Amino acid sequence: MSMQNKPQMVDAVMFFSEHGGVCKQMFFTEFEALLDGMVNMPEFADQQVRAAYLMINPRLLIRSVVFFYLDFDEKGAPDNGWNIPLQHLAEKSGRGPDMGAGPIRLACRSQCPVSWHQMHLWDPSLAPGQNDLVTLRDTVKANQLGLLIEDDSGQSVVAERLQMVSDDKWYSPDPALEEAQKVAEKLNQEQRLKAAQLIKQQRLRIGSLSLQHEEELAKLKLASEKHREVIEAKMALVQKALAQQKELNADLKRQLAEQAASFQSSREKMTEQLRTLQTNGRSEIDLMRAQFDTEMQAKIASAVVEYKEQIAIRDVELAYRQELDGKLQQEIERLNSEREQLTGQSGDQILERLSNLGMVFVVYHPGAGHLTVALQDIARYQENPLAYAASKCFVSEEQYRQWLAHYQQPACEALLANGQRCAIRIDRVDAPSRFKLGDSNCCARHKDAERMRTLG
């Protein structure tokens, strides 16, 4: 066997299934590649998996174990914030049970050398038939990872094969006896060590069970407290509803008693009245009938008088309305006559009549001032007032319109590069005949630009 193929201590990681058995095993280098994101494990997607880090010697015996949790996301990639120093924990952890090569180094929740990593570790089950350490030992012995094995040719001494000398030779200097005593003492020491390891293993199991018991007890206490709070809240609501119901029942009883007393009093009064009516019934009925007839006759007479007065008032109002209608009819006839006289006269005749009376028609237009419109020009002025004013200013109608816009708002109308007007205040040209488009309605800068463009 060459030096390259010599068996060495191997680091491995094994994953536990939900049912307790080992479902996946890999070398620690492969586990580091998994943590670096080079590979994923879709079978563990969106789960928290129990895993164990192992240090295995060349004889396929476990020397160190670290039980830890590892979270996977929905794609099967491990938590990128996971940073538990497995090798450091395996080297610094306390002693565990003997798994064939002496006491192992064991790191778990109840035995963790670094306190802030304790929450990320878990305690193995040591129950008979479900012992996680035995499961790891058997899995390592199966050697599915294909580890190189070192031959163990050494022979150990079996305790049953040891022989003791006879009693008569105990006190004689016999080398064989001394050697047997040494072997027996060594065997006794080994048995003590195994017993100590067994006790420590049982203490570890007891600690693990105590921790599980405390967690279950805390959960039960929390659930009991919540249940007690819910029960107390329900009892408070029931007691409140009961008190309200008792108060309501007392109010109803009081109301019923009052109503019963009132009904009894009313019934007694009604009985007394009925007896009185039965005694004096006929005479009272005759008296009431006579009184009713008298009152009815008086009401009828009063109503007849009132209606007669209303009819007289209506007759006077009707006569007044007839007289008013006659006057209105005469006024309508007079107005119709005047309308017919005015309709026979035309508009020109009216204007001519007004002109003959000395009336003058004067209008005002900017630039032209007050203009006197002759009688023969009134029709032309009505058709287009701006054209009439432009002719009086000796300019065209278009030039007069442009000048009028400049006169009303003297600002530069040149367009800038952004499409908006310059709008700088400029001097107003008072006469339409002196207004020149592109010069009079532009500022000095745009006048020069317009002049250069025209010359070019």
UniProtKB/TrEMBL annotation:
Keywords of the record, alphabetical order, are: Coiled coil
Where, if anywhere, are coiled coils annotated?
Answer: 235-273
What this protein is called in its record is: Chromosome partitioning protein ParA
Q: Which organism is it from?
A: Pseudomonas segetis
Instruction: Give the organism's phylogenetic lineage.
Output: Bacteria, Pseudomonadati, Pseudomonadota, Gammaproteobacteria, Pseudomonadales
